[in-house]
Amino acid sequence: MTGKTLYRKLVDAHTVAPLDEQHVLLFCDLHLMNEYTGPQAFAGLHEQGRRVALPDQHLAVVSHVIPTHPVPVRVIADADSARQASTLAQNCARFGISLFDTHHALQGIEHVVAPEHGLIRPGMVVVCGDSHTTTYGALGALGFGIGTTEVEHVLATQTLVYRLAKDMRIRVDGALASGTTAKDLVLAIIGRIGAQGARGFVVEYSGRAIDALSVEGRFTLCNMTVEAGARGALVAPDQRAIDHVLSRARDIPANQREAACSAWTGLRSDESAAFDLEYHFDASDIAPQVTWGTSPDQVMAIDGRIPSPAAWPDGPARLSATRALSYTRLQAGAAMEGTPIQHVFIGSCTNGRLEDLRDASRIARGRRVARGVRAMVVPGSGAVKAAAEAEGLDRVFQDAGFEWRKPGCSMCLAMNDDVLDEGVRCAATTNRNFEGRQGRGAITHLMSPAMAAAAAIAGCITDVRRMDQPA
Amino acid sequence: MTEAALIVGRAAALRIENLDTDQIMPKQFLRRIDKAGLKEGVLFDLRFDSQGRPNPHFVLNRPAYADASILIGGANFGCGSSREHAVWGLLQFGIRAVVAPSFGEIFHANAINNRLLLVTVPLDVAARLMDDADDPSAALLRIDVDAQTLHSRSVCAPFELTSRQRQMVLEGQDSIGLTQARQAQIEAFAQAHWDRHPWLRGVARRRA
What are the angstrom distances between the C-alpha of A194 and each of A97, A187, A225, A229, B55? Predict the structure, then answer.
């Protein structure tokens, strides 16, 4: 008999009722909210006179519109953005939902905040009106992004009408070489399978390179798997993941911990489980990655050459590659190394955690940001910021000429006032290099935190492996 | 035949692969707490230059396509951010259907929930539909939801819809109301779920 994949086990354990061949009514253990994809959902509840079914299964965070200037009291100057934050606060108060508000010491990006307080537990279904909710697969939780109509549905019923995905397994053996990280791994995978490569699938990662990743590295990996179109990403929880959760989920009483560990240890695909599609990669083949285009799959090794649009089939695919090169003002066949940059952004739900800041600080320590480059470090949360400061990372960055900012989504999607001007080229640790993402006409190159720090020092895109020694 | 069952309109070709929702609805239009005012934001950076002047070459700015109600897109249309504003904006702009080789997953769900019809066609069919759409005199496309066929000047092709898509686009549906009718079933599920996994109950209670 064919066994079950981890994904199917999670779906089955949360299926209230099958609806038709493609859909089930899925119970959601935790719903995270932000200020910009939720207000219309609350408005819908008000209009219909509906209530929040289970307020204790929801957490709200102000993350996207919040300014990150290093001032004692942050004020959201934009009136519309301020209204989004105040509307969220009113709705949370009205319905009894916990909120990390603008001035809360632990405020931050939802996908950084939720796991650092132990809210994400293996075996959960976690949803949020944000596509990067796939992050939680790192702990063996099925996380995925939803739209506002679905936010309203989950507020009112704690369930979703859920379309079943197919099963993909990506096995990564070998070991990541020095100078490469989970970010390089996931960028390389997206480059190989494409921005649509995992569309319609939930991806389960396995293999020695995945086992060797820290939990924070797995967050980065699962976070960005959505950029291959995936509906979810999973890593079966191992002892490292379980310890990560138990050390943070202090509310789990002692008499439940053994049962929880036992349940979490069993969260893995059966040996005989069949996957609809499988890939196999070797981590040792991977060099530091950098994107050259306007889609995360337009990516290359730092020591490679920018590909020619002729490599794509005629039609929209080739036109899009040509359009991307025109937007990023780069030439096919050229190297990426040495391309001057004007801005560096280190942060986001992909790479705004303590380990990311440590990686970047190792490069920054004792060096100086190049003349003409503006470099910002935006911690993913108040807790990350405090932990980094306790290690003195804020001093390392500031001594090197980086700005040390307050937490938020910031320049990843530029919904606050951290917006780049037209033509500015930015080395970013974020997840999307889309046209206009960081500001109209701004050019984004995705890379790891260490690569971004190296670009800040060099003033151009450079190979971190040459700089990865103390200054 | 109901109005929703037959969509006949002018089609405009967007030859862009992975057209993400950041492009369909840029960030500066996401700041409201209601769904109003999104028509202006649709494909803003493609429709307007950096000084705010209309780009006369962009298909949706050409007079012949002023009444376009169908878009023919590239693969992975609507990928990226979960922002439902992209779907609301397209509808406010007068778009009733998007035809493409594939769609971003969250965009797909959002479209169904707002009764924006998404039609998935093979790459070669999309290419021929784009060619037809390029000639304004031939750009009328007829999408018969009942029969699940579409017709342009040179294309006559069937398409698949899930039963849920079909029902949503033809009749609409109060999904929350339907789910709430199962309230007792959901409560019983939750109780049994929490009996097995007590550490999942009230996980966000009094966190702030």
Answer: 39, 10, 11, 9, 31
Using CA atoms of A358, A362, A368, A372 in order, give the dihedral in degrees to the nearest 10: -60
Residue-wise pLDDT for A23-66, tens only, equals: 999 999 999 999 988 999 999 999 999 999 999 999 999 988 88
All residues of chain A having their beta carbon less than 8 Å from the beta carbon of residue B205 are 56, 98
Q: Which residues of A touch B13 (CB under 8 A)?
A: none
Tell me whether residue A292 is exposed, middle or buried, using C-beta atoms within 10 angstroms of its C-beta: 0 to 12, 13 to 18, 19 or more.
Answer: buried
Q: How far is CA B41 from CA A237, B10, B58, B142, in A?
A: 42, 21, 15, 27
Q: To the nearest 10°, report the CA torsion of A237, A239, A245, A246.
A: 140
Burial string for B166-188 (b: 16+ CB within 10 Å, else e) reads: bebbbeebebbeebbebeeebee
Q: How far is A363 from chain B (nearest CA, A)?
A: 31
* Nearest-by-CA chain A residue for B131: A315
Q: Which of B47, B79, B88 to mutate to test the interface with A (most CBs of A within 10 A)?
A: B79
User: Of A267, A148, A137, A150, nearest to A213 (Cα)?
Assistant: A137
Chain B residues inside the 8 Å CB shell of A248: none
Query: Which helix or strand (DSSP H or E) is residue A41 part of?
Result: helix A39-48
Chain A, residues 55-94, CB within 8 A of chain B, namely 56-59, 65, 78, 80-81, 83-84, 87
List of chain A residues whose C-beta atoms are within 8 Å of the C-beta of residue B104: 199, 229
* Interface contact B190-A158, CB threshold 8 A: yes
Interface test with A, best of B33, B165, B182 (most A CBs within 10 A): B33
Question: What is the per-residue pLDDT across A143-182, written as a single tens digit (0 to 9) for each?
Answer: 999 999 999 999 999 999 999 999 999 999 999 999 999 9
Average pLDDT over residues A246-266: 96
Q: How confident is the model at residue B2 (pLDDT cuts 50, 70, 90)?
A: low
